[in-house]
Amino acid sequence: MLRERAASAVGIDPERLEQLFQRAEKEVAEGLLPSAQIAVAREGKLAGMRTVGDVTHEGRAAPATDETLYCIFSATKAITSAAAWLLLQEG
To answer: How far apart are CA 77 and CA 66, in angstroms?
Structure first.
């Protein structure tokens, strides 16, 4: 319920946000990803966050948490493409 209010408060459809989270959970469950962490924000306010799967921490398997840090390579490609889509949307 709290998540739904947070999503709605910033103009995010809570049902669609839940669908996004379920898609990530499915990909982890099917083995496509070992873990996933998704945070969605709008206008600087967090609409929702979910972390699923397992990570290797200090040589041992552990569940991923919202505090798990990920090393992300080539992140600029995703940021650049998202910016391009926003510019296309604005015409």
So the answer is: 24
Amino acid identity of 70? Y
Q: Specify the pTM.
A: 0.72
The pLDDT tens digits of the residues spanning 58-84 come to 899 999 999 999 887 777 888 889 899
Find out whether 54 and 61 touch, Cβ atoms under 8 Å.
yes
Q: Is 59 exposed, middle or buried (0-12, 13-18, 19+ CB in 10 A)?
A: exposed
Q: Which of 6, 25, 2, 4 is nearest to 15 (CA)?
A: 4
| DSSP assigned state of 1 | -
Query: Bridge-partner residues for 39, per DSSP?
Result: 49
Spatial separation of the C-alpha atoms in residues 20 and 37, rounded to whole Å: 11
Cα distance between residue 28 and residue 10, in whole Å: 28
